[in-house]
Specification:
By secondary structure, this protein is mainly beta. It has one domain: N-terminal domain of TfIIb (Single Sheet), CATH 2.20.25. The protein has no helices and seven strands. The strands form two sheets. It has a four-stranded antiparallel β-sheet, with no helix packed on it. The chain is globular and about 30 Å long. It starts with a strand and ends with a strand. The structure holds zinc ion (ZN). Zinc ion (ZN) binds next to loops.
Length: 59
């Protein structure tokens, strides 16, 4: 899933361990799962690429 630049928070679920984690939609850093260290979000060109399941987009 590729998201346009946004200032939303996105709740993602780690596909490996099921951990819920909230990431900022405009983050410029990679986000890893706080439990198992799986890469959840990649970045590039001002967009984030979510590499795991999106549970909810928070507004
Ligand atoms: Zn995990």
């Amino acid at each position: 899933m590729v998201m346009n630049p946004t200032s939303k928070f996105v709740k993602v679920v780690c596909v490996r361990c099921g951990n819920n984690q909230i990431v900022f939609g405009k983050s410029s850093i990679k986000v890893k799962c706080s439990k198992c260290n799986k890469l959840l979000v990649k970045t590039g060109g001002g967009k984030i690429k979510i590499k795991t399941l999106v549970r909810e987009v928070l507004r």
